[in-house]
């Protein structure tokens, strides 16, 4: 027993000496936080959540590496300024999730630091719905933010970004979506009877009754996606059947300027499918469209199997590129376009577009599991 006691005492002593030596040689790790994200173009992927906080994933446009996250509230919408330096989100913060009061806020973020600059309360009527580009917008001069509401009656909250407060709620009965005019304090909205209405407002929040257009589209025979592209001074809408509607919103009321089909004569019954179904590259006047085959009534949200490049001047399809289950696309604006596609399972794909090969899309990178409900992407070049 005495030998065992001496042995155990020796072992304990050696362990104590070893631990003391380890403690003396251990260098504590210093944790740091980068002041800014890595330089270069970004891709912003909104991972909208209906169970808790949403987030905006910021990826590198070069290789899809992860740069950081903007953390926001429930069922968020997202908008980026023209200079890509400021991001806005509109989301809800529910006190008890299932019942009770809900606070809706417009949050302003500095992109370089991914930090919140300020919060502006908006109407709790804010539409809590899948993310679309037309549900949170900025006026042409970016002085005002425009937030879509639904109670289910539709209206738009106008937020003065200089004064930092909401100044008006404009009723938009029977109309949905926000499409800011090329200039001035006005926006248009698509209506359930196939028309569109333009609304104007003043700096003090006063607004005039909307100016309604003549019928632009047939809501039963050829309904439109609420996502639109700004092509020059006009708005470009895509229909479920593959027709493009070019609408001028420069006047008092919207006006249809042109309409043509880019699917006519193509076998396979192809049609646009997804949510953000189009992306426009102004450098080449080419529209990219997410397409699915065997279209039927109700398939307009089907994932795309191809991306079509459409020449808007010649009004024809230039190239059809195979893709993997895409429902949302965005493209850069320059001479060498890069297109990004997303699906609901969190797969993000990066494609380089070759203008010399009729705008064929070549897959260069992809990243999986970026979120559960990734429907919206924006890029900065």
From TrEMBL:
InterPro entries: Metamine_DH_Hvc (IPR009451), Quino_amine_DH_bsu (IPR011044), WD40/YVTN_repeat-like_dom_sf (IPR015943). The keyword 4Fe-4S does not apply. Keywords: Electron transport, Oxidoreductase, Periplasm, Signal, Transport. It comes from the Bacteria. Residues 1-22 form the signal peptide. It is found in: Periplasm. Its main location: periplasm. Belongs to the aromatic amine dehydrogenase heavy chain family. This is Amine dehydrogenase large subunit. It comes from Azotobacter bryophylli.
